[in-house]
Amino acid sequence: MCILTYRGYGYTPAFVANMSEIVAAISNGRPVELSEGPDDICNGFTEACRAISDHDCSLESTRTMDRVALLSVLELLPELALNEPVTLDAVRIAALRAAFADGSLRAACADCSWRDFCTEIAADGFSGVRLSPAR
Ligand code: SF4
Question: What Pfam families does the entry give (predicted)?
Answer without folding.
Answer: DUF1284
